[in-house]
Design a protein that fits this description.
InterPro entries: CHP02001. By secondary structure, the chain is mainly beta. It has 2 helices and 14 strands, in the order H-E-E-E-E-E-E-E-E-E-E-E-H-E-E-E.
């Protein structure tokens, strides 16, 4: 399960658009949420729970004018910090263009926080996403990764193809690069996954194989919290 719960039209940006959202009529607003569980919380190929289960959830507030606000949370397990929970706060704008509005996009700012510890690893990240048909392309960037004053880029491409009714094959590839990647891993690296997903009784289910191409010198032993070995990732979520 990725840090975003793969909601196609979730977008996040703060500033003047946030002020606009707060004064827009409530009649045009809609609240939604999602709760889920996964056998391992992987973020860009790296476990945030030492390979253990995670319970995750989000609450979103969306406007007809394309503005979104929300919060996402998950348990984490990091021996180097005191935090047991990650809480991400985001806000943004999404829209569409083209003759039939077949192209969709979003602009994002996300603030990663870890209640229970100091601000040593909290940081802000921006992204731009583009959607067309079954494809999703996104570019993420922060100039202060993990509050360490280093830049990190992440480019990802996702594809979902419906093989038959209510069943899809899902593919993902992402690439982390810049000083932030060197800061954490000593090199730029790719993460990738392929799997299937469906929905039964209102519950979204997915099963995927996930791995990275980190070199053997930089692969963390599977006993460490930040493990990045190949794994089968299973998740279930319910939207409300």
């Amino acid at each position: 399960m990725y840090k975003k719960l793969n909601k196609k039209r979730i977008a996040q940006v703060v500033g003047l658009t946030l002020s606009t959202a707060l004064i827009a009529p409530l009649a045009q607003a809609e609240f939604s949420g999602e709760i889920g569980v996964t056998n391992d919380y992987r973020f860009r190929g790296v476990s945030q729970t030492a390979g253990d289960f995670a319970v995750q959830g989000s609450v979103d507030y969306s406007m007809e004018n394309g503005i979104f606000l929300g919060v996402w949370a998950s348990n984490v397990d990091d021996a180097s910090y005191d935090a047991d929970v990650e809480v991400d706060i985001y806000a943004g704008y999404a829209g569409a263009f083209g003759a039939d509005e077949e192209w969709e996009y979003d602009v994002t700012l996300t603030y990663y926080t870890y209640p229970g510890q100091d601000e040593s690893s909290q940081y802000l990240e921006a992204s731009v996403g583009l959607y067309y048909g079954d494809f999703h392309l996104a570019q993420w960037y922060t100039n202060d990764y993990s509050n360490a004053d280093v830049a990190l880029n992440y480019t990802e491409l996702n594809y979902s193809y419906e093989i038959f009714e209510n069943w899809s094959i899902d593919a993902h590839v992402g690439y982390s690069y810049g000083d932030g990647a060197d800061y954490d891993w000593g090199e730029d690296y790719a993460d990738y996954s392929i799997g299937v997903s469906t929905e039964l009784g209102g519950v979204a289910l997915s099963l995927a194989w996930l791995d990275t191409n980190l070199s053997s010198d930089n692969i963390i032993d599977s006993s460490e919290p930040w493990r990045n070995d190949g794994t089968v990732l299973a998740s279930a979520s319910y939207a409300f």
